[in-house]
Structures are given as C-alpha cells and as structure tokens.
Amino acid sequence: MFEVVIGLEVHVQLNTKTKLFCSCPTSFNHKQNTNTCPTCLALPGALPVFNKEVLHKAIMFGTAIDATVNKTSYFDRKSYFYPDSPSAYQITQLYTPVVEHGKLRIDFENGSHKIIRINRAHIEADAGKNIHEGDISKVDLNRAGTPLLEIVSEPDMRSAEEAVLYLKKLHAIVRYLDISDANMQEGSFRVDVNVSIRPKGDEKLYTRVEIKNINSFRFIQKAIELEVARQVEAWEDGTYKDEIVQETRLFDQTKQETRSMRGKEEAADYRYFPEPDLLKAVISDEMMALYSKIPELPDEKMERFIKEYGMSEYNASVITSSVEMAKYFEDMMDEGISAKNATTWLTVELQGRLKGDMNITNTHVDAKKLGLLVKRIEDGTISGKAAKEVLDKLVEENLDVDGVIDALGLKQVSDTGALEAICDEIINANQEKVAEYRGGKDKLFGFFVGQAMKASKGSANPQTINEILKAKLG
Amino acid sequence: MQVDDTLLNRLEKLSHLKIADEKRAEVIGQLSEILNFVDNLNELNTDGVDDKFSMSDAATFMREDKPACDTKINDDIIKHAPQSADHFFIVPKIIE
What we know:
The complex is a heterodimer.
Chain A: E1 2-13, E2 50-51, H1 52-64, E3 68-69, E4 72-73, E5 76-79, E6 89-92, E7 99-107, E8 113-125, E9 129-133, E10 136-140, E11 147-153, H2 160-177, E12 189-199, E13 209-214, H3 217-236, H4 240-243, E14 248-252, E15 257-260, E16 273-274, E17 281-282, H5 285-291, H6 298-309, H7 313-320, H8 323-333, H9 339-353, H10 367-378, H11 384-396, H12 401-407, H13 416-429, H14 431-438, H15 444-455, H16 462-473
Parallel strand pairs in A: 13-14
Antiparallel strand pairs in A: 1-11, 1-12, 3-7, 4-17, 5-6, 5-16, 7-8, 8-11, 9-10, 12-13, 14-15
Helix pairs in contact in A: 2-3, 6-7, 8-9, 8-10, 10-11, 13-15, 13-16, 15-16
Chain B: H1 5-15, H2 24-39, E1 62-63, H3 71-80, E2 84-85, E3 88-92
Antiparallel strand pairs in B: 2-3
C-alpha cells in the first residue's frame, strides 16, 4: 500500500492598486503594454520602490494563518532569462520571507479536521505574458511587476481530496481578507502541485513531481489522481527509478494525462543573491498593530453560526465557504427571519435556480429580496409553494418582491370572515361527509381542508383553514 | 575561480547569448580579470559577521499605493524596441 504525499505552492496575485515596485496600475484586461514604466520594463537606471500596501496584505495573511510575521524581511534576486521578464531576474524573498510557520485547518465532510502547516508566504514580482503566434512571440508586460504572495505548504496532504480542501480553505481566507480577487481562470490564484508516493509507514520523501498551473479545483483533483496512478504503476512495474524523475509536468485535460513539460535539460541555475537595489523591509510596531487587524475568518464565522443560529456544522461550512455567500446570508438575516429558512432558501431554492454564469453576486435576487421573500412566508402572506413561483419570476426579472406577489395574485387570505364563509359552504354542500367525520372517520378532515383550499383557489392560509374547520366540525 | 571554455558554455546557455569563436579567448580573459578583482574581497575577515550585514542599516522606503502612469513614456519605449507591432513587443518564437 502506498501513501500519497502532496505539497502545494499557490501564487496569489495581491489586489493592490499599483505594482510591487512602481506606481503602474495593476488592472486586468487593459490594452497591452500601457500599464508599464521604466521600472517594470527594467530600463537602465530605474529603481524599485516598495509598495506599502503589499506589506499590509502580507501581514494580514500572516495573522490569518497564525504565522510568524518577520519584522525584518529581505529581498533576493532570482536570475532567469525569459522574454516575459525584461530585467532577466525576479525580485523575491528566498532567505527571510515576511511570513513563516503558519497553519490552516481543513474540514472533512464527516466533521473531522486536520491541520496543514504552511512553511512560508513570501512577496515576489509577477512576470508578463507571452502570446505565441507562428514564428514570433508577442510580449505584453502589463502584468510584469504585479505583486504576488507565494504561499508554500508543508508536504502534509495525503490525498487529492485533502489538497482540494486545503486550496478551498486557502481561497476562502484570501477572499475573506480581500487581499486578492483569487480568480483561478484569470490567473490571480495559481496552483502548483508537488506529488510523490511512498510505501505506507515509510518516513522518507521520494521523488516529487511538480504539476504546474492547473486552473480549477476539479482539474487539480484529477491531475493529482492521474499523477499518483502513474507513479504507483511505475513502482509496481519496477520502473520507478527510471520513469519518475524530479521534473515539471503539465496536466492535459483533453487527453486526461500529465506529461513532461521539458526534455532533459540542465537544472536551472537561479544564482540567488541579496537584491542590491532594495534595503531590508522593516515593519514598525505601529504598522504591525494596524496591519494585523483582520475581519472574521471562515472558521470563526462557522463556529459563531453554529452557536448563534443552531446551524448544523455541515450547513455552517457551506454558508461560510465563500465570503460572498456568508455576506449574502448575514444580509438575509437582517430581515429578522429564521436561520433555517434563510439557509434553505439560499442554498437550495436560489442556488438551484441560478444557471450558467449566474451566481449570488450577479443575480437580480439580492439578499434583501430573498430575505423579504422568506419573511413573507414566515408572516403568512404567502405559502412556501407560492414563494417558489415568486422566486422563479424574481430570478428572471429585476422586480420587487411584494409587487410580484400582488401581480401573481398569490397573497394568502388570512381574513377569517372570508375563509369562514368558504368553510361554511363546504360543510353545507357535504352534509353526508360531515356526519361520517363526526361519526369517527377522522381521515376526512383532509378532504374538507382540500375542498376549502380549492374553493379559495389556493390563496387561503392553510393554517387558518385548519383552525376554522376544527372549530366548526367540532 | 577558473574561467574556462566549459564555464563560458554554461554562461552562454544561462544568458541565451552566443559569444563568437574569435571573441571567446578575449571574453574569458575579461571575465577572469573581473573575478580576480572581486576576489580581493576574500582577504577581509568576515568571521562572526551576520550574513544579513549591510553597509547601511536603513530600511527600505515604502510608497503609498497610488497609481500613476505616463502613457507617453510607454509609447516611446515601444517605438524604440527592436521590433514591435500593435503595442506588443515582438520577440523570436519562444519554444515552450
């Protein structure tokens, strides 16, 4: 039996307004090479000036994962030659990163937990983008110099599932802190996976294979499973030593395989040395106090929801899994409704109706509307069934809740006078059944309720009908 | 440190530069000279000196996160690139 050993490196693009070492804007999707300047284009003589906000966001992250935040950290120069980096080096933090020795808790569906250690989080500059076209490559340096926080876990994960749980929790934390857009498709949350296997019980780490830049949680799971299968097969065939080498592989989603990105070549030589253009980064006591203030995180929110609303751990974890969902839920609760109804109407009814690219942040149905709709069920204005019809309409068009209830004529009649008249009619028209009921055939009660609801065209409040019929039939 | 043809080959690979055959001896000579010059620093006794030691104990200056961009400058830079088109820098095909 084999044990899988996984470590993850995540490059999080920080959502500062400007780049790491110059004042160029960081906006996504601008015209190529317009967010550039002599510094990020590495023109001779241009010097880097550190963006304070980058340090702020790094400190917030360090606080969130209960890590050591180094009051003094240093920049190092990593040399490599590639057209997406005009300076031919990357400024990073190799020897003394700003954040070290953190931890993150992952939650399994069965309610158990595991702590994953985080080795470090360091600040570094992103590269530009290359577009390959026939005999040439086009270089866009808008992204060059954008701040990244590279978050490196310890090899603590033992399955693809654990790796995905770690990434989802990390993603949630980054979004709760609002230090990055963390959009995997747009490349602001980039994941590299390190995978190796070993016989169970063995403490040694064997050859690790790196799989780069996989852009969805689902593909990460798949890529790990495929790579583990490849390594196990090689081990069992006795070809492990020849086939499994330390290399970078690419996940091919169409062919469902991982394959080597490069042929055998000399190991890269990055020639790291202390960055001569920058002095050490020092965090003053004032900065530390100010920048380590962070909002409530998913784990704390989850515990609070369980305590405050009596939510199940599972529901609480679903609601707090993303900052958008948690905020939506809390805004719904402002309408003074029950947490149970809010949860169901958000996670089942609304999310079940959001198709394609629709999600809770771009739907017409904002938290205030859905909260009010639930309130209308709770105060007896409409039935749960009618509310589903209202929600169908609200998802389609930008309308107000009470307007739709009126327009569709779904208001329940709770006016006792009108309902009593209906009940009297039913009783008079069905004297035989009344006698049978009074003679002990209790089941017939449902028949009377059904008839009364039908006569009201479904608009009657069933609770009120029940009460009236109970009183009249004795 | 000895600079020889093997090391020069390695440096060419790392820098993606090609040194012409007739220049090799000269470049090897110059690199050796530079290294020998820097080698003088090894005479200094650095026992007990922290490897983070710097001539200046000052911390790096930090700027506020306020955007500023001069599009005229980046237009000019693009124009001066050896090759450009449609506001892209154009380079020989990069083999991935």
